[in-house]
Amino acid sequence: MKKSIFTLLASALLLGACGKGNESHYTDVLYPSTRYRLVMADQTADSLVFASTDSWILTNSAEAWCSFPKEYASFNNKYSNTWVVTSVPLTFQVNTTGKLRSALLKIDAGESSNAAYYSQVPFLGISRPQRLVSNDLTEVETYPLKLKAAATLDSVSFNAYGDWTLNPLGGTWVVPQATEGTAGHRIVNLTVEPNTLATERQDTLILISNGVQDSIFVIQEGVKQS
């Protein structure tokens, strides 16, 4: 099993306590630092990092979509009064359920228990246009990208955890300058035809990343009548 073993500072502090006749017991989650991690629908990997002076057992409440290698299920700590830092690789299935789902990873070490929560949302990480997510993460209000009638250029932005495609659903008046790419934070410029009509028009850009589909709504206002 690949493990990152204690730092010298931690070792010195704990050995100092041991020299005073005390037996030290310590377990804490280092990452995520808040013990909570929000992951996107197309995200397939992350990690859990914790430190413990004791032997431990790691359990998972959501094995159907969140998993880790079986060699990380337990560890016999042979290092007396010394922190052992463990980084556990996590693998997620992409979330195409349309629902929020959560996993509890529990660390039973000695006489204590610690835990970290991972919640996977059912949507992609679109940042432009802005989105408003409910407090319970179950609903998303998507603000459309609003364009002036004379607009010829705009952009959308998102964070993709896999290869992605971006294409208009039906219209030809708004066209992404890039229609595919690889993982990362991406800003895609849009070429827009000015709207010469008095009525507004709408189209939808379909973003797909790692097999997860999401929508970006575009609305262009009509020409104002004088």
Walk me through this protein's architecture.
- The chain is mainly beta and 226 residues long.
- The protein has two domains: 4-120, Immunoglobulins (Immunoglobulin-like); 125-220, Immunoglobulins (Immunoglobulin-like), CATH 2.60.40.
- The protein is 5% helix and 50% strand.
- The protein is built from one helix and 21 strands.
- Strands 1, 2, 4, 6 and 8 form a five-stranded antiparallel beta sheet that branches. The chain has a five-stranded mixed beta sheet with strand order 3-10-9-5-7, with no helix packed on it. The chain has a five-stranded mixed beta sheet with strand order 14-21-20-16-18, with no helix packed on it.
- It is elongated and about 85 Å long.
- Residues 1-21 have low confidence and may be disordered.
Summary, kept brief:
With 226 residues, the protein is mainly beta. It is built from one helix and 21 strands. A hairpin with a 2-residue loop joins strand 9 and strand 10.
